[in-house]
Amino acid sequence: MNSALLPKPGLMWLKRQNYNIVALNPFLDASAVKLKEAIDHGVYVRPDSNRTDFYEVEVSDGWAYIHVRDEAQIVYIVAYADTSGGLSISGNDQDSHRLTKPGGQGRGSLCSF
């Protein structure tokens, strides 16, 4: 078996077909298509240990922080950053918190809770 396909510790498999993907900020709309495809097919995510149903997920060209509402069949995109260092912000700057990108690179996104 290819070791690249094995999950890393702390990750879980997330697959939700036919869920609506909702960006909390219009600047995040472009990431919704890629995220929907990943979640429809299944993707490894890292659960947020401080918030129930919030996850960090890496997609083909970026990283997202999402909230899954199973009862409503909705995935909210809270924040998204592309791997080239671009930054998308959701929420207002007064209540923003820095999230560390998976892998500990220190580069992250700002989002509001």
- CATH C-level class is Alpha Beta
CATH level-3 fold name: YaeB-like fold
CATH architecture: 2-Layer Sandwich
Strand content: 35-45%
pLDDT < 50 stretches: 91-113
Q: What's the pLDDT, averaged over the residues?
A: 77
Instruction: Count structural domains.
Output: 1
Features:
113 residues; mainly beta; YaeB-like fold; six-stranded mixed beta sheet; two-stranded antiparallel ribbon; 1 helix; 8 strands; disordered C terminus
If you had to describe this structure to a student in words, what would you say it looks like?
The chain has one helix and eight strands; from the N terminus they run ββαββββββ. The chain has a six-stranded mixed beta sheet with strand order 1-3-4-5-6-2, covered by helices on one side. Strand 4 and strand 5 form a beta hairpin. With 113 residues, the protein is mainly beta.
How do the helices and strands line up, and which of them pair or pack?
Layout: E1 12-14, E2 20-23, H1 29-41, E3 43-47, E4 54-59, E5 62-69, E6 74-82, E7 96-100, E8 108-112
Parallel strand pairs: 2-6
Antiparallel strand pairs: 1-3, 3-4, 4-5, 5-6, 7-8
In short:
It contains one helix and eight strands; from the N terminus they run E-E-H-E-E-E-E-E-E.
